[in-house]
Each structure stands twice: as structure tokens, then as C-alpha cells.
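Q: I'm writing a short explainer about HNH endonuclease for a general audience and would like to include a description of its predicted shape. Could you first generate the structure from this sequence?
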Amino acid sequence: MTEKLKLTIELVPASSWYNNLRSLLKKEMWDNLRKTVYAKCNYKCAICNSKGKLHCHEIWKYNDKKHIQKLVDLVALCTKCHWIKHIGLAGIHTSQERLSFEKLVKHFMKVNDCDRTTFEKHKSEAFKKWEERSRYEWTMDLSVYKNIEKHRTLGNGD
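A: Of course. Here's the predicted structure. Afterward I'll give you a sentence or two in plain language.
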């Protein structure tokens, strides 16, 4: 099902919360990197092409046998697409009346040209996968970041 969807839910295992590239970098380094990502995406959301406020989203690939989460890319996402990616956190903000869950669901359905049943099924599958992955400790592989920095440095003529 996920292969057909343009916008998907990507829940980070609980054991890996706050364990990401952004948290490892100094603010200035992260700011420079995210601005590079925004430029790479032509200052539009990589999923729905909307303009406006963007977030730099880390895309992870999970090796469920070796419990390694590998950073594979960074993309620019609009606020709504980014909340969908982190729908669990969005649920917390919704319960605190900081966010409209229904607006996010409508955005998901519009971007994917699907119905509520498709959203609910995808969400349920994502949470099942999250529960399973959250049972383990994960090792982070940031080797792609080293390549990003290497290319950035070379590209700047340094």
C-alpha cells in the first residue's frame, strides 16, 4: 500500500526519539544544512510542491534485522506534510489543542488522492511497524551526511 502513496507516515522508533542528525549538529551547522536542502528542493515541499514555511526532514531507511537506521536523504517539507510524517507527535499536539488533526488527514487525502479508509489503514500499519521497531535499540548510520558535507565543502571551493 505504501508504494502507491506520495505522502506517507514515517514513525521513528521510540528508542530513537531525539537521536537524529539535527540534535547532533551545532545550530549554525544545522541551519546551513537545512538551507542547502531548501535550495535543492527549489524552496518547495518535496511532496506536495507547496511554498511557504519549510522543514528539513530526515529520511531514514531501517534494517529490521540488524537494527540499524540509516540516514538516506534530507528533504524540504511543508508543515502539513512534516506533521503527517510524524503523526504520533501530531497527535500529542492535537490533544493539547495546538493542531487540527482533521486538517492533516484532509491534506493526506488530497496529496494522495485517497479516502479516509486509506488513511486509517496506512496509519494503522505505520503504528504496528512503530510498535515492533520500538522494541529494539537502534544504531544510527550517518555515513550519507559525511558525503553531504564532503560535497558541500568541495562545491564551495574550500
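A: For your explainer, you could say: Helices lie at 21-24, 27-40, 79-85, 87-95, 101-112, 116-133, 143-155.
Q: Perfect, that's easy to follow.
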